[in-house]
Specification:
- The structure is a single chain.
- The protein is 0% helix and 48% strand.
- By secondary structure, the protein is mainly β.
- The strands form 2 sheets. It has a 6-stranded mixed beta sheet, with no helix packed on it.
- A hairpin with a 6-residue loop joins strand 4 and strand 5.
């Protein structure tokens, strides 16, 4: 069963940037997404990329975040620029529903 491992999170000031990585133990799925869950809130979809490279973004991150994939490395990336305090959350990667087992996520904290 494919395992997903997220990394690259950290503490950054508002306006800063981070690049998250998600590496799969096997081949990544044809479609992949980044999700996030802030304290006390439900997990939400942030961005998706399909096998052809087509991307979609939540309105809240459009123009600031970029999702990409490297199939040779079984890795999906999320470049996050112009970060805001409201981007603070644990970030996860997974295929679109039906989901595979979730990884541990990576914490992103944006200070004002």
């Amino acid at each position: 069963q494919v395992q997903l491992v997220e990394s690259g999170g950290g503490l950054v000031q508002a306006g800063g940037s981070l690049r998250l990585s998600c590496t799969a133990s096997g081949s990544i799925f044809s479609a992949m997404g980044w999700y996030r869950q802030a304290p006390g809130k439900q997990r939400e979809l942030v961005a998706t990329v399909n096998s052809g490279g087509t991307t979609n973004y939540a309105d809240s991150v459009k123009g600031r975040f970029t999702i990409s994939r490297d199939n040779t490395k079984n890795t999906v990336y999320l470049q996050m620029n112009s970060l805001k305090p409201e981007d603070t959350a644990v970030y996860y990667c997974n295929r679109p529903y039906p989901y595979r087992p979730w990884g541990q996520g990576t914490q992103v904290t944006v200070s004002s």
